[in-house]
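Hi W., the iron/sulfur cluster complex you wanted:
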Amino acid sequence: MSNFFTSSLGKKLIMSLAGLFLCVFLVVHLGINLLLLSNDKGEVFRVAVHFMTTNILIKIMEIFLFGGFLLHIIYGVIVQIRNWMARPSGYAVSNNSQTSFFSKYMIHTGVIIFIFLAIHMANFYFVKLGITTPLEGGSNPVQDTHDFYNMAINLFTTPAYSIFYLVCMIFLSFHLLHAFQSAFQTMGVNHPKYSPIIKWIGNIYAIVVPAGFAFIPVYFLFFYN
Amino acid sequence: MNFTLKIWRQESASSKGRFETYKISNISDECSFLEMLDQLNEQLVDKFDKPVCFDHDCREGICGMCSLYINGRPHGNDSGITTCQLHMRRFKDGDTIVIEPWRAKAFPILKDLVVDRSAFDKIAQEGAYVSVNTGGIPDGNAIPVPKVKSDLAMDAAACIGCGACVATCKNASAMLFVSANVSHLALLPQGKIEAKERVTKMVAKMDELGFGNCTNTGACEAECPKEIKLSNIARLFREYYVASIS
Ligand code: SF4
Ligand code: FES
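Structure:
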C-alpha cells in the first residue's frame, strides 16, 4: 500500500479522483456565478455568497477543495516531469500517430488554468483575506472587501479582463474535453457500452460548463448597463 | 521506385548519432521495407561502407523483433502491421523517408537503428508467466472459461513485445505492453492465482526502469501491430487497485 501512492498508477488515480472532485466544484461555482445575472442589484448573489462563506459545512468542504487542487496540481506536475524524463532525446520527425488531440496538451492547458486560478484568487479570495486589493476601474467601485458582487461586476465590465477570462474558459474547455473521460479510464472504467456514454457526458460537460462561465462576461460587456 | 533515405547512424551506445542521407533506386513496389534496407546495405557493403544495423528476425510479423520509427510512425504509415510487413507500395515514388530508432530512456540505442529492449524482458520476468507445474493434459471441460473471456485473453496474448507502444507514446509509457501481459493471464483461471503478485511486481519494475506514465492519448493503440486495445490498460488499473487494497 505504501508503494501505491508513489507508483505511476497510484499517482494517476489520485490525480483523476481529485480532478473529478474539482469538476463537481465547478458546477457549484457556476451555479452561484449565474446568480450574477439576476436583475436585482446582486441581492440573491449576496445571499448565496453569504451562505458559501459562513456555512460550517461549506467551510469544511473548502479545506477539501484546496486539498483537491493541491493534489491535482502537484501530482500532475510530478507525472509530467517523469514523462518528459522517459524520453530524454526526441524524434526528428514529430509523431504522426492517430491520437486524441487535447490529451497531448494537458500540461499546457493546465498551466494556463493555474495562472487563471492564481489571478482569480488574487481578485476575490485574497481580497477577502486582505492580502490583495480589488482591481480599480470598471463600473462598480468596491468599498467592502467582502463585497464579491461589486468585485465581479467591476471586473466583468473591464473589457481586458473579460477577454482574458473568455480565453481562459476556452482552455478550461480543452482541458476538460480530455480530462473527464480520461479520469474514468484511469479509474479502470472502460466498457464497450458505457464508455461512449461517459465520453458524451464528458464532452457536454466540457463545453456547457466553461460556456456557462463565459456567458457572464459576455453579458456584462454587451447587455449590462 | 526511387527514394531518398535519411537514416539515423550511431556508432555505439555512447557515441553521438547523426542522420545520413542515401539515395536508392530501382526498388520494386512489391519489395518489403526491410528488403529495401537489405538492398541499401548490399550497396553500402559493395562500396566498403558500414551497413545500417537494424533488428529483424521472422519477417512475417510474429516475433516482434523489427522496429523502426518511419516518417513519424513506428512500423511506418499503416495500421496493424510490423515493419517487416510494410511494403514500398505504401510510399510514393521519390519520397524522402526518415528512419529513426525507437526513442525512450528505457530503450537505449545500441547501434544505428538497433535499441536494447531488454527492459521488456525484465518486466516480463516479474510475472508474465504462470509459475505452476501444469501436469498432464486436463479434460477440456474440467476448467470452464467463458468464450468472451477466452477471446479477450487471446487478444491480449497477441502482444509480440515489439515496443511500438513505447516508441509512439509521448510519455514513452509501457502501459499497453504491461496491460497486455497482465490481462491475458488475469482473465484465465490458471493466471488468476498469481494475478495480484504479478500486477504489483510488473508495475513496480516498469516504474523502476524509467518508462513514462499513461495519459490516455491512445497513440499506443493506434500503432500496436497486434491492435491491443486501451481497455487492457483500464484492466491493468483495476487489477492494480484491487491488488493494492487487498
Ligand atoms: S502492446 Fe502492441 S505495440 Fe506494445 S509491445 Fe505489444 S505488440 Fe508491440
Ligand atoms: S521481423 Fe519478426 S515481427 Fe518483424
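Residues B 159-165, 176-177, 180, 224-226, 228 surround iron/sulfur cluster (ligand 1) (CB under 6 Å).

W.
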